[in-house]
Automatic annotation (TrEMBL):
Limits of the Fe2OG dioxygenase domain: 131-244
Top-level lineage group: Bacteria
Protein name listed in UniProt: 2OG-Fe(II) oxygenase
Family per similarity comment: Belongs to the iron/ascorbate-dependent oxidoreductase family.
The entry's keywords: Iron, Metal-binding, Oxidoreductase
Cross-referenced PROSITE patterns: FE2OG_OXY
Iron as UniProt keyword: yes
Length: 261
């Protein structure tokens, strides 16, 4: 993996060594303090650029256009009236390529590299993480062209793991509000305040190409702001689970990607 990753700076290939443990500890501290950690330049700039160049034509021809209005939960909430301000609806638009379209890429090699899952598990304080068996969902790459955005949402999984391949000229920021809710408290008033633009704890970061970003997506509200300029924002999302062999149902695949296989 040395050809595509900066393993001198981020020794993911040496699990259990003092320098590996120091990096894990730094990531854990960041997660506890801020709900997020970033490894800037984990993927080499040349690799991120060549992966992007190979994918850009496929976004034009083969990708699923995801375009919809949705609330932060992607569904109605039984305890709330439909006009509750926590259920405000927003527009999302991006294009997705799935794992079955990424064969042979450095991204898939990284996803299936056992030391990467081992490192991520350690940062998240899990005994082990497994890649999915789902032919589409294992790794997704999303592209956002001018005006496209991923709007406010919470993720289904506890943690979300992304790697930016190409940054846009402007816009395309990652805006997030750590621990806006908890498993015990949905904090609908807090959600409504965030959506109205009134949460002073909201933060925006712009990722640089090659950066690994891990955040607590289940209870951290987050969005990608609209991209500006001619260069698309291109980002990979890796899905791991605590059990081996996880797949989506055909209905889930069709809902997420417009096709079952
Ligand atoms: O593109 C990003 O930075 C975040 C992606 C995300 O939130 C998601 O895939 O659920
Ligand atoms: Fe998300």
């Amino acid at each position: 993996m040395h050809d595509s990753l900066d393993l001198d700076r981020y020794p993911q290939d040496r699990p259990g060594s003092a320098e590996w443990q120091a990096l894990v500890n730094r990531c854990r501290d960041d997660l506890t303090r801020t709900g997020m950690f970033n490894l800037e330049g984990l993927m080499r700039a040349e690799t991120a650029a060549s992966e992007t160049a190979a994918l850009l034509p496929r976004f034009a021809s083969d990708a699923f256009l995801h375009e919809r209005m949705h609330n932060i939960y992607f569904k109605p909430v039984a305890d709330l009236p439909p006009d509750h301000p926590a259920l405000r609806r927003f527009h999302t638009s991006n294009r997705t390529l799935c794992a079955d379209q990424l064969g042979g890429s450095a991204l898939m090699r990284l996803y299936d590299w056992p030391e990467f899952a081992r490192f991520l598990a350690a940062t998240m304080d899990k005994p082990v993480l497994y890649p999915m068996d789902d032919p589409l969902a294992r790794v997704n790459v999303m592209s956002y062209q001018q005006g496209q955005a991923l709007n406010w949402h919470f993720d289904r999984s506890e943690f979300t793991t992304t790697l930016l391949l190409q940054a846009p000229e402007a816009g395309g920021g990652f805006e997030y509000r750590t621990d806006l809710r908890s498993d015990a408290d949905p904090n609908y008033d807090g959600v409504a305040r965030l959506l109205a633009g009134g949460d002073p704890e909201a933060r925006t970061i712009t990722l640089s190409p090659g950066t690994l970003n891990v955040f607590k997506g289940k209870n951290t509200a987050h969005r990608v702001t609209p991209v500006e300029g001619a260069r698309a924002r291109v980002i990979a999302v890796f899905s791991y689970f605590e059990q081996p062999g996880v797949t989506f149902t055909e209905a889930e695949r069709t809902g997420f990607y417009g096709r079952a296989g």
